[in-house]
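Q: Give me the 3D complex with 3-methyl-2-oxobutanoic acid.
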Amino acid sequence: MNSRITILDLLQAKRDGRAIAVVSCYDYTTARQVGQAGVDMIIVGDSAAQLMFGFDSTLPATMDIMVALTAAVRRGAPDVYLVADMPFLSYQISAGEAIRNAGRFLVESGAQMVKIEAAGAHLDTIRAVSDSGIAVMAHIGIRPQRISTVGRFRAEATTAEIAMQLIDLARQMVNAGAAALLIEGAAAEVSQIITERSEIPVISCGSGPACDGQVLVAPDILGLTDGRLPKFSKTYAELGPRSIEAFRAYAEEVKARRFPDDEHSYHMKPGELQRLTDLLGRTH
Ligand code: KIV
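A: Here is the predicted complex, encoded as structure tokens.
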């Protein structure tokens, strides 16, 4: 418990200019590996709806799903700073519901912070959740939960006017009590300005190198994602083809009756097979 990373460590990292490594992942087994790899923060993102459940957007993620996934990740990575993503409709309806749902992540999952995809309309919610004692990461720039209104996503803040709006929105989020910012898919120059002007940690998801930290989703890092990655993402190991090879080798051994072999089978204690044969002989 003593070695668990806290918000103070993240603030110190920002002050020292040490970059914060963040991974979005969703399960116990992956979290165990991430926790041993020097990663500072895990965000249990609602991209789980796509990458764990195969939906075509993040919208079907529910509170119950996200709470269960976040708790599993906490069990796998007890010391990593843990952020839970508030799913669609968990914070838009009222500040009261937002506080109740955010609180579930702290109480039921062991999360230390919640992430809210935030526009100007959510400033009161950010303030209410933060005032209730729950640290909030305001997610600005591309907000995947808006897919229904925007149709598809483009890089954000690539013109001076939109950049001004994003810089101002970041300032308002900080004033409303956000404890961290996540900027998705915004021009690197603009993220740099926001990072320099903010005293809280600013995490980039495809928003350039100048932020205080970087996040990628675990399946992209491991080469497990189907299809083309976004421009900003990067694969560090091609585990997808290697996994398929492993499953193929297993299936072939099963079909050829080479698995399980003696090494992978249990056996009766010495003499017990003979006793069983005798018992069977007596009953038939
Ligand atoms: O859903 C997700 O994985 C995210 C990442 C940007 C952290 O929001």
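A quick observation: The two ends are 61 Å apart (CA to CA).
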